[in-house]
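User: Assemble these into one structure.

Assistant: Restating your components, then the assembled model:
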Amino acid sequence: MARHDRRVGYTLPTVLAVLLHVGVIGLTVFRWPQSDPVETSNAVVQAELISMETATDQAQQATEAQPKAQQGPEREQPEPEATQDDAAEETARQQAEAAEQAREQAAQEAQEAAQRRAEQAREVATQQMQEQQAREKSEAEAKQKAEAEAKQKAEAEAKQKAEAEAKQKAEAEAKQKAEAEAKKKAEAEAKKKAEAEAKKKAEAEAKKKAEAEAKKKAEAEAAAKKKAAAEAAAKKKAEADRKRAAEAAAAASQDAFGDEITNEAESIANARQAQEASNGFMNLVRRAVEQSWSRPPNAASGLVTVVRVQLLPTGELLSATVSSSSGDPGFDRSAVQAVERAAPFTEMSQLPAEARQKFRSFNLRFNPEDVR
Amino acid sequence: MNDSMSIISLFFHAGLIVQLIMLILLAASVLSWVLIFQRAFALKRDERDLDEFESHFWSGVDLNELYREVPADNPQGAAHIFRSGFREFNRLLPKSRSHNAVLEGVERSMRVSVSREEERLTTHLAILAIISSSAVYVGLFGTVWGILGTFQALGGAQQVSLGTIAPAIAEALVATAMGLFAAIPANIGYNRLTHKADKLMVRMENFAEEFHAFLHRNLQNRSTGENT
């Protein structure tokens, strides 16, 4: 009966419990991925978009492409003008050309941005808008001219500086060489000391002269710089004021149509975003049509129907016609009915206007065999 | 996909409070299993001891010998009842003249030891009961908290799809799963262990009654022996 003294300890149960939990966690970790089912397409029916570009779409895209192509040369026009003005001077100042071109491009971009804003405003706005555009344009041109002048001056300064620096460098190098030679001679040949001293004196005089000239030049350059800087600052101020006024006017006009204009600008600027949005819209349409498609039970396998869908800009269905029949009229009818039931596609209104035009007409392919 | 939905990764992706609740539930689960194992072993041993003692007791052994065999310090089970009852009997028998007084004292002493045994058998079962009843609610709280956070986060989102909600909801639901994981074994263990303990208690009470009857008979025999 000695057993009565022994109490059941807690170490063994603790070990067992911990082992049990570790086992359970291990099961969840290692078994879980295996038992996870392979991803299956949950679509009962797949309606595939085979071509978004129909004949009408292509025509529309062509018409869309034309203004873009026209816009291109328009933007490039200011460049030759500016270069012609500067041409005579630039031939003499080829070194500073690259910098100048970069600045000109920046200015052109600014001008283009202003033009774009003006065009956008033109499309939507009233006569007030047009007046503002005219103002903006004149201001932008004035800006450009002022900038070009400032650039020319800056280039001239840059050239002068470069020349002065080159001269100074050449003088300094000449000095150093002469000194080095003189030292060598003095150390190596004691006889030629007198000659060396004479040379040194001559060099010193030359140095003094050169330094004096350099000082004069530097002073002249500094004075020129100050003048140019003052002028440039004044011009900049004037430009900044003009810009502010222009921006304020543009902002006032843009506020009214802000979102639409920005959306349009984005859709024009990045075709990728538009494509993504269009893909999203196509998926939505496809899913909606899939869900509302009740396939006729007695339909034979291997049937494929292509339905031409035409939409209004609001997303409402204009027409759904069978463009490529499967041969089974019941099957075709079910496909058309599916589209009619799925309409309207109200997501259309959320698309940017450019993308909206694209989806006015597209084809849907009904192919139940794609699933299984 | 597989990695993102495993329990471990869901745990690590959950919010702080949900993680805390999950840790509490894990601790509760471990504790409940420790108690289940410990109580199961202890009750099994008690049952075996009771079997042994009863068979020994009814084998016709001399009670004084049995009393000596039983360990004096901290006996358990039926031995405890027997020892306290027999000690009381031996103490009272020489002092009191009335048999009833002796039997009353023995009965009282045995009742005390029976209740002591009951207390011993049902130790920690209350903890199991608490875990079994409250773990579910704690887990639900974690889930509700997680879903709350999810919806707060969704409020700022532009486009809400099933793909954005599902992982967060799954994270939150892990808390409920863990609550159930802790509560179900605790509940089953609690019911089973209380049943076992009750059965043992009934047997011990029966033994106490039988021993009481035995002593009563013994006293009757003595009194008749004295009278004649």
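The radius of gyration of chain B is 28 Å.
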